[in-house]
Amino acid sequence: MFKRLTQLGRLGVLALAPLLAATAHAEDVIRVSGIPDENPTELARKYQPLVDHLQKNLGVKVVYVPVIDYGAAVSALAAGKIDFAWLGGFTYVQAKVMAGAKPVVMRDIDREFQSVFIANTASGISKPEQMRGKSFSFGAKSSTSGHLFPRHFLSTQFKIDADKDFSGAPLYSGAHDATVKMVESGKVQVGALNIEVWNRMLAANKVDQSKVKVIWTTPPFVDYVWTARKDLPAATVQKFGKAFLALDASKPGDKAVLDLQGAKKFVPAKPEDFLVIEQVGRSTGLLK
Predict the structure, then answer these.
(1) Contact, 213 vs 127, CB < 8 A?
(2) Residues 6+ apart with CB under 8 A from 77
(3) What's the burial of 15, exposed, middle or buried (CB within 10 Å: 0-12/13-18/19+)?
(4) In 3D, which of 229, 232, 228, 230 has the Cα closest to residue 268?
């Protein structure tokens, strides 16, 4: 009998081993990711200083885990393959609905974010009303600033049905900078994207302004947020948030991180901040 109990005890330990290993992993490594809203080279440039800052402040190893598309970021968070994800407002709502994800912090600029509509100069388009009957590209299908709100404003501001009123079905470039290049090349005549990416590309001389121009800037809306998976310990989430809130633009090292993130500071985020996005998602049929 004692021998059998000993064997069962050993089996119990073996059964618990994967769980214990996962727990140790969670304590020893924080895995972060983000929606791939720009090309991989730009994302790596933006994330590395932030990963270094988090590792220093959290006292554990922090690993950036790239994902292939917006849906993969949500799925990885839901499956526990990553701990925190930098999501757009709409992808956060999807993650909340799918897996109970929680918002942690957002940039100051994300409380009043905007998109721009751009046109190829050869198209002759100079105002939004002239987009009807032209070729058009959004960014990624799950993008807040590259699809959800541009689609919403097309309908509410200009009575344009994105699925019926362009020259064909709208294209989806997959990323904001890719939308710029599609419009610049003439592959499509008009597109919509995140204003931050547009301004950054202008500053870096990555846009041929003889070929593409802004024709409209949207009203403001709430967008990006750092999001935690549902089952993370509250203390871990709190410590992660504090690492962002502690960033101080008066300190050169912190300023470098903030500049790459396009922010002057980070602020706390709450679920109610994103209620409008959920409403717009449902009204456009993009959120079921």
Answers:
(1) no
(2) 33, 85, 87, 95, 99, 101, 227, 229
(3) exposed
(4) 228
Question: Looking at residue 271, what DSSP letter applies?
Answer: G
Structure tokens, 151: 């689609």
DSSP symbols for 14-74: HHHHHHHHHHHHHHHEEEEEE---S-HHHHHHHHHHHHHHHHHHHSSEEEE---SSHHHHH
Residue 117 has pLDDT above 90, yes or no: yes
**Could you tell me how far CA 197 lies from the centroid of its own chain?**
12
Residue 37 to residues 33, 42, 239: CA-CA distances in angstroms?
12, 10, 26
- What is the length of the chain? 288
Residues pairing with 128 in the sheet? none
Q: What is the pTM for the complete model shown?
A: 0.86
What is residue 118's three-state secondary structure? Answer: strand
> Would you give the distance in Å from CA 83 to the centre of its chain?
15
| Residue 111 CB-half CA count within 13 A | 12
Residue 1 has pLDDT above 70, yes or no: no
